[in-house]
Write a structure and sequence with these properties.
single chain; alpha+beta; five-stranded mixed β-barrel; 5 helices; 7 strands; 18% helix; 27% strand
Length: 204
């Protein structure tokens, strides 16, 4: 058993349990190129005010933790910085939730929601290229929705460590390469995304 409570056999393989693997929706399948799409939105260069020690803390801090597929990419707005030329787009990944693992989504976001990221020099051609690369595999998203803010229609990942997807050798955190000893590191101890989903579903 690893420190996340998942039973593993030597070499990191999942130990036999006698039950069917929870692979509904293709959680444990990996398609070439999907991870690279998610890594396009890597957040390591941005400061984050939120840091979570483990899965339990991040789950409780989230409005909802969902399994969802990316179905569209949009420019949500143009952010104006302090200088006249300090303008950059905010990018929205439109998600289609398939499973609310923890928490709850607002009724208007039950079928589709938009997660906003800071863009960097994106134009319409770049967005069109991203649309052609939409990943088939879903991710496990830790999301926050602030109904008190003017832009309440957008969600945000709780931190750069707030997205997990299936990789070749195990679960990956494509928005960050950092996170040793905390939320990201704990999530990456799982070989199968479906097992991580079940772990988060058990958080109370």
């Amino acid at each position: 058993m690893n420190r996340s409570g998942e039973c593993v056999a030597p070499g990191g393989s999942d130990a036999p349990t006698g039950a069917a693997e929870p692979t509904a929706g293709g959680l444990d399948l990996r398609r070439s190129g999907d991870l690279a799409f998610y890594q396009t939105f890597n957040m390591d260069g941005f400061d984050s005010a939120h840091h979570y020690r483990d899965l339990d803390e991040a789950t409780r801090a989230s409005t909802a933790v969902v399994v969802a597929r990316v179905v569209d990419v949009v420019i949500t707005r143009i952010f104006q910085g302090e200088g006249a030329d300090d303008r950059f787009p905010m990018i929205g990944l439109v998600l289609q939730p398939t499973d609310v693992v923890s928490g709850a989504l607002p009724p208007q976001s039950a079928d589709r929601l938009t997660v906003e990221f800071i863009g960097s020099g994106y134009d319409e051609e770049d967005i069109a290229k991203l649309k052609r690369r939409l990943p088939a595999q879903p991710g496990l998203w830790f999301l926050r929705f602030d109904s008190e803010r003017p832009r309440a229609s957008f969600f945000y990942v709780v931190s750069p460590q707030g997205l997990f997807v299936q990789g070749t050798q195990g679960v990956e955190t494509p928005l960050t390469k950092e996170g040793d000893g905390d939320l990201a590191a704990e999530g990456r101890t799982y070989r199968r995304l479906s097992a991580l989903v079940q772990r988060v579903r058990g958080v109370r």
